[in-house]
Design brief:
Blueprint (H helix, E strand, L loop, with lengths): L13 H8 L11 H10 L13 E5 L2 E5 L10 H17 L4 H13 L5 E2 L3 E3 L2 E7 L7 E6 L7 E5 H5 L6 E7 L5 E7 L6 E7 L5 E9 L4 E2 L5 E7 L5 E8 L8 E5 L6 E6 L5 E7 L4 E7 L8 E2 L9 E6 L2 E6 L8 E6 L9 E4 L6 E7 L3 E8 L2 E8 L6 E3 L7 E5 L9 E8 L5 E6 L5 E6 L11 E9 L5 E9 L10 E4 L17 H4 L4 E5 L9 H5 L7 H16 L8 E6 L1 H12 L6 E5 L5 H6 L10 H4 L5 H10 L12 E7 L8 H13 L6 E6 L14 H19 L1
Parallel strand pairs: 34-35, 34-36, 36-37, 37-38, 38-39
Antiparallel strand pairs: 1-2, 3-5, 4-5, 5-6, 6-7, 8-9, 9-10, 10-11, 12-13, 13-14, 14-15, 16-17, 17-18, 18-19, 20-21, 21-22, 22-23, 24-25, 25-26, 26-27, 28-29, 29-30, 30-31, 32-33, 33-35
Helix pairs in contact: 1-3, 4-14, 8-9
Length: about 725
């Protein structure tokens, strides 16, 4: 089926266009019998809404851009809501014939999930803590057991009960007081990630009257069991202040203990594993700063560990008489571990524990009484290293045998433990939880996520390959598919990537993905620059004035899959979300002919306008990621790749764009404007669909299962394109 461009469908879409444009329509428009007959014939085809154009001049550095769809940034405007609903209706019409397939996909995906399930308990302060799920329920139940794993469950918070009657619900930041009697937790019922902190008496079940609005969700307990610290958000949703609250008093009387005045930093608060110190952190892309307070003295003053310096990054933990610092000090690009006495915390007192290595990224540490566990990354893969404090001979890596996998340090709250809790997964191995005995080097599999049905990992094959970028850089690509694949260049392939903020896209298992693999798809992850898979420099080479490396790496990975006979442009699909949605927008402007279809989820596509508007959430904190367009050099560079600004009159792939009305990370109007502009300018008849979740934000629908409705829609979009091609 061909889908008419808005310009060619004016007659058939007249009513919708007039409604969305908010203007009257002249009666002479339909006077012609010929026009009426054409409209009747064309009305059998779904017609897209046509957003009205209201030119707005945006001038920066003497350069003027015209934004015809700027008006869409008014969330409360009924006309905006009408337009988004019209787009949703259009998407539903175009994909209406796939509703049965969508339901089948949804049933498949949900059918693989074990309904009655629970996480592996971990022990903390005399209790075993875990999360339980019950059949048919959308939300988790947070529970604990006293002393023994076999003891009776004690439900701390049943999110199903708290979510009753709400369109959206998320609980976050659950924290139990040192005496085990009180629970603090955050609740978001809008999906803007603005949480109200509440408190519950775990002995009586009583919900206390204390309620603290507009927080990040977490509360940190002082050791007196009545004082908590928390962070609040400014109008741009930046976490900018830390307050102290005493139970039983109004939140309006809470005392401000720290104000992060620098808009390029955000602030947060946490407690050290030792429970000795409360730490306030300030974070930007290029620098961090920490303050500490004895948790036994909640009314005391915080002391700075090391004042912020641009380019000096560090993180803090505590053990014994020392703070342990993971830092890039003195050019340690991949970070090193240092220690310093609690009484002398300045960087001049830091002493090296684990040196910097050019080929190994130090991602994090876990401190125990007798040993240290380090999470590292080498050649794109995670590693776990064990090192004894006193025994120099205890220094080794846990062995993992798969070609592409992910290992990570789990929850280890007990300093005295001789066992390390770690997680493991791969493209063919479901998430697995292990306890590893440091002394015997034996591992015990505590749980492997069950895939309900006839799943057999031996039916699938995973590979790690390398594409070569134009500048000679080797780009890792992880692939998974059903065994027996023929390399004839004719396999449908979905290529996914992110490539920003130093976030590494690890090869991990997804039971959801099986619905594609079992239908013949190859699933591939391009580990492009902008992530941190190959070390810190990998990130540095994919941001700021090197951001285009991210996009060209993805294109090179796409061409590599075609050259290696995995697929061809008629069966290659691309997908990315958020900053990965920016990737999708940039790539289709650069090489649209490479892809049959593209899924751009909550895409960050109006880069210049957003980064110029410091009132938008996250903008000021991201100047060191993208650059500050108030500087002409960065303005010009952003303008050269910003997807919205670079839409051209040419053919684009079939596209499904998704967003959430209450998105706090990427505002809904970015994808809405982008789709409207693409409709106006592009020259093809390919599908262009916008789906807005009117009740959710950046993470989509809340609940355990409802989120997969959108996944089913995305997969049906892909499969429908394949079916059309085969007809």
């Amino acid at each position: 089926m061909k889908y008419l461009k808005p310009k060619a469908a004016a007659s058939a879409s007249l009513l919708v266009a007039c409604l969305v444009a908010g203007s009257g329509c002249s009666s002479t428009t339909t006077d012609s019998a010929t026009t009426a007959q054409t409209a009747t014939a064309e009305s059998t085809l779904p017609q897209p809404p046509v957003a009205k154009k209201v030119p707005k001049e945006l001038t920066t550095h003497g350069h003027t851009r015209i934004d015809n769809y700027y008006w869409l940034n008014q969330r409360e405007d009924p006309e905006v809501i009408a337009y988004l609903n019209a787009e949703n209706d259009y998407t539903k019409q175009v994909l209406g014939h796939t509703e049965e397939l969508q339901q089948k996909l949804y049933d498949e995906i949900v059918g693989r999930i074990k309904q009655n399930d629970e996480t592996v308990p971990y022990k903390d302060n005399g209790y075993w803590y875990f999360v339980r799920y019950e059949e048919g329920k959308e939300y988790p139940i947070y529970a604990r057991k006293k002393e023994s794993r076999e003891a009776k469950d004690e439900v701390m918070l049943n999110a199903n009960e708290r979510a009753a009657g709400k369109k959206y619900y998320a609980a976050a930041g659950l924290s139990v007081s040192p005496n085990n009697q009180l629970l603090a937790f955050g609740e978001d019922t809008v999906s803007r990630r603005q949480y109200t902190i509440r408190f519950k008496n775990l002995q009586t079940g009583e919900l206390l009257p204390d309620a603290i609005p507009n927080t990040t969700g977490g509360a940190v307990w002082a050791n007196d069991n009545k004082t908590v610290y928390y962070s609040v958000k400014d109008p741009a949703l930046r976490s900018f202040k830390i307050f102290r609250h005493t139970l039983g008093t109004p939140a309006s009387q809470d005392k401000e203990v720290f104000h992060e005045a620098d808009e390029t930093f955000s602030t947060y608060v946490f407690k050290t594993k030792s429970d000795k110190y409360i730490i306030i952190g300030s974070h930007s892309t290029m620098a961090q700063e920490y303050r500490y307070l004895d948790a036994n003295n909640p009314n005391g003053g915080f002391k700075v560990i090391q004042p912020r310096e641009r380019g000096l990054e560090y993180s803090v933990d505590h053990f014994g008489d020392n703070f342990y610092i993971v830092t890039n000090k003195d050019g340690a690009t991949n970070f090193k571990l240092m220690q310093t006495p609690v009484t002398k915390t300045g960087k001049e007192n830091w002493k090296e524990v684990i040196p910097h290595r050019q080929d190994v990224l130090l991602e994090g540490i876990e401190i125990f009484k007798d040993y240290l566990a380090l999470q590292e990354r080498k050649d794109g893969l995670t590693q776990i290293r064990i090192k004894g404090w006193k025994d120099a001979k205890t220094d080794y890596y846990i062995n993992f045998e798969e070609e592409a996998y992910t290992a990570y340090i789990g929850n280890n709250p007990d300093f005295d433990s001789k066992e390390l809790r770690f997680g493991y997964t791969s493209l063919t191995t479901p998430y697995s939880t292990y306890d590893y005995n440091i002394q015997t080097k034996e591992r015990e599999l505590l749980k492997r996520d069950e895939v309900v049905g006839d799943f057999d990992p031996n039916n699938y094959e995973a590979k790690r390959m390398y594409a070569t970028a134009d500048d000679g850089t080797k780009i890792p690509v992880s692939l998974v598919y059903r065994k027996g694949l023929t390399l004839d260049g004719n396999n449908p392939t979905l290529l996914y990537a992110y490539g920003s903020y130093g976030n590494s896209m690890n090869p991990s298992f997804s039971s959801v993905r099986l619905s594609l693999l079992d239908r013949g798809f190859v699933y591939a992850i391009a580990h492009i620059r902008g992530g941190q898979e190959m070390g810190r420099q990998w990130y540095e080479d994919g941001k700021m004035l090197k951001k285009k490396n991210t996009f060209t790496d993805f294109i090179d990975a796409s061409e590599f899959l075609i050259e290696q006979k995995y697929t061809n442009p008629d069966k290659l699909f691309a997908m990315g979300g958020s900053a990965g949605g920016l990737l999708m927008g940039a790539v289709i402007n650069m090489r649209p002919e490479l892809y049959k279809g593209v899924i751009a989820a909550v895409p960050f596509v109006d880069v210049v306008t957003t980064m110029l508007d410091t009132s938008i959430p996250l903008t000021t904190g991201e100047f060191d990621e993208w650059g500050n367009p108030a500087n002409k050099e960065y303005y010009d560079y952003m303008l050269s790749y910003s997807p919205y600004d670079n839409v051209e009159a040419k053919a684009y792939p079939n596209m499904l764009v998704t967003t959430g009305l209450h998105d706090s990370q990427v505002q809904y109007w970015e994808p809405a404007k982008w789709v409207a502009k693409l409709r106006e300018i592009k020259t093809d008849d390919n599908m262009l669909l916008l789906h807005t979740n009117m009740e959710a934000g950046h993470g989509g629908a809340s609940g355990r299962f409802q989120r997969y409705k959108e996944t089913a829609l995305q997969y049906a979009f892909l499969l429908n394109l394949l079916e059309q091609q085969n007809q």
